[in-house]
Amino acid sequence: MSSSSSTLTVDDKSVDLAIKTGVIGPSVVDISKLYGQTGMFTYDPGFTSTASCESKITYIDGDEGVLLYRGYPIEQLAEHGDFLETCYLLLYGELPTAAQKADFDYRVTRHTMVHDQMNRFFTGFRRDAHPMAIMVACVGALSAFYHDSTDISDPHQRMVASMRMIAKMPTLAAMAYKYHVGQPFVYPQNELDYTSNFLRMCFAVPAEEYKVNPVLSRALDRIFILHADHEQNASTSTVRLAGSSGANPFACIAAGIACLWGPAHGGANEAALKMLEEIGTPDRIPEYIAKAKDKNDPFRLMGFGHRVYKNYDPRARIMQKTTHEVLNELGIKDDPLLDVAVELEQIALKDEYFIEKKLYPNIDFYSGITLKAMGFPTSMFTVLFALARTVGWIAQWSEMIEDPSQRIGRPRQLYVGSPKRDYVTVAQRG
Ligand code: CMC
Q1: Distance from the CA of 264 to the center of ligand 1, in angstroms?
Q2: For residue 399, is pLDDT > 70?
C-alpha cells in the first residue's frame, strides 16, 4: 500500500490528509485525525464515500461488474470450485491443497450436530414464525451452549467458533424449515457433502429413502458460493461493528442475520419472487415499470439496482444460468414466473429510467425462481443467503479481530435536535 497526501482547507486553516492507495480500486483520504486537527467531523449518511476498514478478503468493481474473492473471479470459483473450498479461501486467504481441503471438510463435517437441547428452542416458536426470526434467536443462543469457544482473545477458540457456525448453520436452517412445515427434524448425515447434507436435512422424511439429486446439489452449492461474501455490505458492517465491542462471535453473527433480513438487503430475494408472483403475467409488466418510476410510489423493482454495481451484477449472470439448469433438471418447461422475469429484465434494461440510473438485475432477481423450483418456500430464501454469508461474516470478523489497530466502531453525528434547555415539571408544561 503506497501513500501520498492531500490538503483540505476549512476557512483559512489547511490540513494535510494522507491518501492511502490499495492494490486495486479507489484510493482513500485518511481523515482519522481530522477531528483532532480541525474540530470537524465528516458527514456521509449511508457511507457512500467512506471506507470503514482495510480488507484483503473481497474486491468489487461496481462499474465493471467484477467480484473477486481473495483475488479469484467469482465466475471461476462458481464454475470450478465448491462451497467449502470457497469457505477455506475466504477464511485463510489461499485455495486449499488436497490435504488441507480434506482436513477442512472433515473438521466442518464433525461439527454439524447442534446441542440436542436446541430442539426445545424451536418448540417455543409459533409454527408460522418467520424462519429468519428463528435463525436470529437460535444463532444468538449458540453462545449459551458453546462457552468453550467464546473467548475472542484465544485464536483456537475463534477457530472452533468459526467451524461450529459454518457447520451448524445448515442444521439450524433445515430445522427452522422442518419446524415450519411440521415435519420431524432430520439429523445430519456425515457421509454426504455439505450441500447434499443440507438438502437431505430439508427434504428427507422418515417414511421413505431420500436420494440427493446431484444436479440440484451442485446448483445450490454454486448459489452458496455466489453469496459467500460481498465486502463491507450492511450485514457485514453490522457484524464488524458488533464484534468491535468484543461481543462473542455467535452474538455478532446473529446481529448480521438480523440486518440481512431487511428487504433492501438479503430479504430482496423473497420480495423479488413475491413481486414476480404479483405481476403474474407479462402483459402487466408496463404497469409495474411505471410504478417503479413514479416518484410518488414507494414501489421498487425488487432484485434490481445495487449500491455498488452500476453494471450487471456478475452473480446475477451465473444465477440466471443456474436457474435454467435447475428448471431443465426438474423438467419445468414453462415457468410463468421465469417468463415474467425474463421479459421484465428485457423491458427494464431498455428503459431510459433504468439506463440513466444504472439499475441492473442483482443476484436476487433470479435466485427466488431457482430456490422455489427446488422446493424451498419463499420464507426460506433469506435463510439460505444467511447460511452462505456466514463464512463471509466470519472471515471479516476474524480479519477485524486480528487487526492490531482495531478499536470499537463509534460513528459520530451531526446533532440537529433541541439546544440545551431546562427541565419543567408537568404542572408547568403548557
Ligand atoms: N427500482 C426503481 N428505482 C430504483 C431502484 C429499484 N429497484 N433502485 C434504485 N432506484 C432509484 C432510486 O429511486 C433513486 O432514484 P432518485 O435518484 O431519482 O431518487 C436511485 O435509483 C438511486 O437509488 P438509491 O436508493 O439512492 O440507491 P442505494 O444505493 O441507496 O440503494 C438498493 C441500493 C439495492 C437498496 C436499491 O437499488 C434497492 O432498493 N433495490 C431493490 C432491493 C434489492 O433488490 N436489494 C438487493 C440488493 S443485492 C443483494 C444484497 O447485497 O443484499
Answers
A1: 8
A2: yes
